[in-house]
Amino acid sequence: MSAVSTIALGIALIAALAWVFRLAGQKMTGNAPRFRDMPFGLAFGYILGALVLVWLIWAFVQSRSADLATANKFFFLGVAIKGFLLFAAAAWIFRLLGRHVGTAGTRKLFRTIPLTAAFGILVIIVYAILAIFANVIAPHGQDEILQGVAANIIPGSDPNFPLGTDQIGRDILSRLIYGAQNTVGIAFATTLLAFFIGGSLGFLAAVVGGWTDQILSRGIDVLMAIPSLIFALLLMTIASVWSSRLGIPLTVFMVLIIAVIDSTRVFRLARAVGQNIVVMDYIEAAKLRGEGMWYLVFKEILPNATAPLLAEFGLRFCFVFLTIAALSFLGVGIQPPLADWGTMVRDLAAFISYAQFAPLVATLPLLAAGAIALLTVAVNFVVDWMLQKSSGLKE
Amino acid sequence: MTEPLLKIRGLKLEGRSDETWSPIINGVDLTLARGEVLGLIGESGAGKSTLGLAAMGFTRDGVRISEGSVEFDGIDLLKASAAVKRGLLGKRIAYVAQSAAASFNPAHRIIDQHVEGPVQHGVMSRAESEADGIALYEKLRLPDPENIGFRYPHQVSGGQLQRAMTAMAMACRPDLIIFDEPTTALDVTTQIEVLASIRDIVKDFNTAAIYITHDLAVVAQMADRIKVLLKGDEVETADTRTMLSAPTQEYTKSLWAVRSFERPLKAPVVAGSVPVVSVQNVDASYGTVPVLHDVNFDMHAGRTVAVVGESGSGKSTTARCITGLLPPKAGQICFGGEVMPADYRKRSKDQLRQVQMIYQMADTALNPRMSVGDIIARPVQFYLGLTGKEKRARVDSLLEQIELEPSEYYNRLPSELSGGQKQRIGIARALAAEPKFIICDEVTSALDQLVAEGILRLLANLQDNLGLSYMFITHDLATVRAIADEVVVMKNGRVVEAGPKAEMFRPPHHPYTDLLLSSVPEMDPDWLTNLLQERGVDNIGDAAVGKM
To answer: Is the minimum CB–CB distance between A209 and chain B shorter than 8 Å?
Structure first.
């Protein structure tokens, strides 16, 4: 049986099941509106979803029953399902806690918060704690080379090094924790700088308009026309020469370069949001009162632009973060011996090919990548929730 | 009596706000016979539109029907399946929204949207429906009915679009049409055409209609019966004539009494006195498009000059010239005898202080992120240099002047205020600068009549106490009657007539003034019929303008 006919048969089976499901629902509930007005596509979706769920449960059982350290094609799926359930439970408990602890304001906030946003906030809090108290929490130093334990590459095999050690004997758990400090801290600083540059120029263009707006906007267009990662790579190559000549750490240049490149996106948003606010009557009233530029931008416009800018801040933070990781992966970002997630992925990348026969070993490079992914997802969940809150939509 | 077309019994609706459901409509009954027109009136927030939509078995997001029944021609719309409702809506029940401009899809031609319903419901073929559409356009007295449907929505005027939408609602010859404030956004002169068209076509096809509006005079022309709503409760229902002549409920009487506010006439201006603001030979244009042509008029201390005219007549542009937002191409603005710099950026702080403005849309005129106290305090601090306790005391006294309790409102945000209260804050902000002259740009047109009345009384009191001059931009002649001392009539960027109010309301008028005056709906249910007879039934509106 060819693949095409398998798929066709599968679809036909699901369609038949969906039809039976809807009919049965109508008969059993005495034609309740839920089943009576159910489109066929929805019934199809229910059945498809149910089948996928059944398969996932089956796969999960498979992944548990086999030997851990050896080949098992369901190993990563099993980890993903366990992780998902664990995080969901953690978020649920966190939200429950938030509803009963804290001030009246936060309790009210937690009553309406969706689970995804609770998860996002929880993850961000954990990352923040790790980043701030990295030197206290981490069992070893980030560049500390431990003698005699190099390349302990199976996580969990040595209780002293829960996640193992890398090729030259550095504790991976400690490096992951320090990585939070370095990567997240630098990303945060870069995003703030990008917002300061892009935001103030964008509002300026919106308020003044005319030639100022034209010159700024076209200049930004030119910067945006160059692919950002390649542009950053190019500038970093130049900067690496300067940094050794001037004695300024390369990291400072990296922050500046990424901030400028990312400020172009912020400029676009700030200008668009600003233009919508500038036409409001209260801005006209303030102009007619004789108010200066400073007051217009920071008292009248900025407070009304915080919601979209904050949402953009979350997204932009993720992009900056990924750019730094990408540059580090390419070798021009955060320099060794500083621990950085991007560099860690690169250093351990070779172990990926062990996935087929030793899945536990292959998780090594995925740990840092997972740390990046987790934060990115968490920030996006929070941003989505804030956007929905600020747009005043009711579901 | 035969079975009614629409029967609503004990209908209760709830709306969601912050996790809880609060009632919007508390048990309303409504019966509508075939071919009958029922007027639904009430203030905003009374639940008129919600009830109108519920009559179609439909609720907006965040609203639910908690109790009651809606029966249309024997079919219970609340229990009917989606398929049954799909068959009814658009075909037997149609809806005409307030803003035709926002309801048409701007990317498709009018006729393409018109034929959608009939073709979808299988009533007519596309060609038949197009021919029928042209016939309807003709019936609704749209100019050039053969071709108007082949234009895009932005290529026809607001009043024409509203009629095209009525034609669209008629496309399947429904049994029931719900009109949700179809003329509220239109000028008086345009409103007449739309009203007459709607009334005739509803009568010709014997269509039942629910006509939702807050304008009593309009509903008096359109409806056979009137139902008054207040905060989701029915106040009373009666025949139009009975309702107008003998309302039984206090609330209804108060609605009817609104139009009685009128200020005593003032003594004529002393000859030779220097006007507060004088607009002298002003020409203005947006880019290369000329908007104002040789505009001249004076405004004197302690007086109100009403500037009237339809939209596009240059009223607001004149205000922009006076404030300096749009420097005139020629001519000048004098303030207390001195020539003001044309551009507001070149005016001194004191010159800016003297001219203040109150806006039409209080929603966009107040910064939503600033508290009431901060909004009013800013000009106090900016112009008068008051800080700390002095500033707070001044703001409190201003809040008292606009009849709002300072302790209660000082820390509120604009979103926590009603429309009328927001407009009062706008007034307080203008007063805070201690000006001599205030431009009121359509300040009452977005408000309900009772609230608007309160604002007008407040402005009149402030004028008497503080000796302010107002330039009152409006298209509503009832407002002019209530508050103006002098009237300036504008059309196409020119002043066509100007003089004291008493003279303006006494014939003979300039033909345009005449058209404006006669177009203001009156409470008399026969007013529209008489007016149309006077003007000649076949050439209302468009033709009357053309005659001049």
So the answer is: no
Interface contact B433-A289, CB threshold 8 A: yes
CB-based contact, B62 to chain A, within 8 Å? yes
Give A318-338 as a DSSP string: HHHHHHHHHHHHHTSSSPTTS
Rounded mean pLDDT of B257-281? 75
Domains and CATH numbers, chain B: 6-260 (3.40.50.300), 277-506 (3.40.50.300)
Instruction: Give the domain extent around A263.
Output: 181-391
| Token pair for B189 | 């002169």
Instruction: Specify the DSSP class assigned to residue A158.
Output: B
Contact (Cβ atoms closer than 8 angstroms) between residue B163 and residue B194:
yes
Using CA atoms, how far residue B365 sits from B73, B370, B448, in Å, is 47, 12, 18
HEC letters along B224-289: CEEEEEECCEEEEEEEHHHHHHCCCCHHHHHHHHHHHCCCCCCCCCCCCCCCCEEEEEEEEEECCE
CATH (domain of A213): 1.10.3720.10
For B198-236, write each residue's pLDDT tens digit. 888 888 888 888 988 877 788 888 888 888 888 888 888
- Smallest Cα–Cα separation from A326: which of A384, A363, A376? A376
Closest CA to B366 of B298, B285, B422: B422
Please choose, from the candidates B547, B487, B357, the residue with its C-alpha nearest in 3D space to the C-alpha of residue A285.
Answer: B357
Beta-carbon separation of B367 and A111 below 8 A: no
Specify the long-range contacts of residues B115-122, CB closer than 8 Å, at least 24 apart: B115/B171, B117/B90, B117/B91, B117/B168, B117/B171, B117/B172, B118/B171, B118/B172, B120/B90, B121/B87, B121/B90, B121/B91, B121/B172
Separation in Å, CA of B523 to nearest CA in chain A: 35
Peptide bond connecting B414 to the previous residue in cis, omega within 30 degrees of 0 = no
Q: Is residue A304 part of a domain?
A: yes
Nearest to A385 by CA among A117, A37, A22: A117
Chain A residues closer than 8 Å to B77 by CB? none
For chain A, the distance separating the N- and C-terminal CA atoms, rounded to the nearest angstrom, is 46
Per-residue pLDDT tens listing for chain A (395 residues): 688 999 999 999 999 999 898 888 888 887 777 787 788 889 899 999 999 999 999 888 887 765 655 656 777 888 888 888 999 999 899 888 888 887 887 888 888 888 898 999 999 999 989 888 888 887 777 777 776 666 666 766 666 677 777 777 788 888 888 888 888 888 889 999 999 999 999 999 998 888 999 999 999 999 999 998 899 999 988 988 888 888 888 888 989 999 999 999 999 999 999 998 988 889 989 988 888 888 988 888 988 888 888 888 888 888 888 888 888 888 787 777 778 887 788 778 778 887 777 777 778 788 888 888 888 889 888 888 887 776 654 43
Q: Report residue B194's pLDDT band, with 50, 70 and 90 as the boundaries.
A: confident
Q: Report if residue A89 sits inside a domain.
A: no
Opening angle at CA B280, ends B275 and B284, nearest 5: 135
**B209: alpha, beta or left? (left if phi > 0; alpha if psi -120 to 50):** beta
- Residues facing residue B12 across a β-bridge: B26, B67
B352–A112 CB contact, under 8 Å: no
Hey, what's the torsion of the CAs at B498, B504, B508, B509, to 10 degrees?
Answer: 50
The ipTM, to two decimals, is 0.74
Q: How many domains does chain A have?
A: 2
Q: What is the four-CA torsion angle of B108, B112, B115, B121, rounded to 10 degrees?
A: -60
Is there a contact between B102 and B136 (Cβ–Cβ < 8 Å)?
Answer: no
State the DSSP H helix or E strand holding residue A126, giving kind and residue range, or none if neither: helix A115-132
Q: Is residue A145 situated within a structural domain?
A: no
Same domain, residue pair A245 and A385 = yes
In a domain, A234, yes or no: yes
8 Å CB contact of A37 and B365: no
How far B366 CA lies from chain A's nearest CA (Å)? 5
Partners of B335 in beta bridges: B277, B338
